[in-house]
Amino acid sequence: MKLFIRILVTTILVIVLSYFMKGVRVDGVVTALTVAVVLGLLNAFIKPVLVFFTLPFTIFTLGLFLIVINGILILACTKIVGGFQVDSFWTATLFSIILSLSQSIMYKITGGSKK
Known about the structure:
mainly alpha, 5 helices, 2 strands
């Protein structure tokens, strides 16, 4: 049930953010749902590998390089999901920051914590 709530929250946030951010386009609700699932899979399987291989950069930048990794994952999602477009790397990075902050707030509200 918690997984379903997390996917639903992410879907809604992707739709809302696409309305407010220039450079981010989502064709519809099904596309946003697909983006939520693909982002979850990328974060679960690809992100740990990227974090491992970029660990020296992450340590040197005191963790700020993780923001770059999140932007890269958003760009990877645009290549995988048709109907989801992000104009640039900086837009993807800003989108990932806002999405992460919004998810944290919404998970606290809905009770869908990571534990």
